[in-house]
Amino acid sequence: MKNIIIIILFVLLTQPSWAQKNISGNYTHEIECMGSELDGSMTLKTWGKGKNRADALEQARKEALNAVLFVGIRNGKPDCDTRPILNAPNIRENKADYFNTFFKDGGKYKNFVSNKDESFGKKERAKGRDGEVMFGFIIRVMRSELKKQMITDGILNN
What we know:
alpha+beta, six-stranded mixed beta sheet, 20% strand, single chain, 158 residues, elongated
């Protein structure tokens, strides 16, 4: 009996093809801060998923802003401001009309992001099971301007 258990364990451990493989497009990638600038902007390494590269870029921009506004940046250089701009509980849900308009395609969000520093979009991509492609981008978020806009629009209290 002992020999049978050892054989079964050996077979299971030596058969990596039976294990489920991680495909890059099927799990989330953490946003990473690459640095902050003196003008109040942050350079982030982020990911976007879409039918093509342009669609993935738009999603990456939205993901970067979403992290800066609501989640905070947990990975990357320590000199980055890791706190989210809006930390009130359920603010995204409570101000859903505002944020749905803000993040819609062609919305205000585009005023606070740029990808002039883009550098690794083509190197790190994987096609997911749903036919969408994931790209990595370097995105600059104008954090201080974004915070001013949230104050101006009455979303954030001074």
